[in-house]
Amino acid sequence: MVHTKDFEIRSALHKKILQRNHECPSTFVIDELGLAHGKKRIDVAVLNGCLHGYEIKSSKDNLTRLPEQLKEYQRSLQKLTLVVAENHLEEVMSLAPKWCGIILVTKGSRGGISFSKIQRATENPSIDTIALAHLLWRKEAVDLLVQLGVDDKEIKGSKLKLYENISTLISVKELVAWIKEQFSKRENWRLVLPS
User: Fold this and answer.
1) Whole-model pTM above 0.85?
2) Which of 39, 58, 80, 81 has its CA 20 to 30 A from that of 102?
3) Largest CA distance in the chain
4) What angle do CA 173, 30, 104 make, to 5 degrees?
């Protein structure tokens, strides 16, 4: 096995797997998207009609943080694909939930990165709308609640209270559409442009 590094896998992922997403003007591709107000991050997030995260585990990484990461990803992402080096494949397959996609990364003797789809990602059956709402900035959450006709008194609470209110009033699909709309309005935000 030829060792892999995060940056080379990420670069190849953007060019080979996510190229069509980059080419679509209504799709956002974001490196290091913070979840749970930045307590956890997903290596690459793709947002179109669905929020799909890609977590990279190179041969140099260890998997000690993966169980905790998976808990947050299960709360916050509609789909998840783990992009893993050969030395992690067996352990990742035992840890990953059934709905999680798995892509095997290999590196050739000349340094080329190749991907093999092991398991296709399907929709996460247990996403938490409150955790998903954490992707909104406070003003974005307030604007959504105003649009939904929520009383002014209910809009003055903590961010968590705002997110809880949102979760009772809107579906995951509607919330993802609102998040996408808000991302499009954020100026100078961290979208990844294809190289």
Assistant:
1) yes
2) 39
3) 63
4) 95
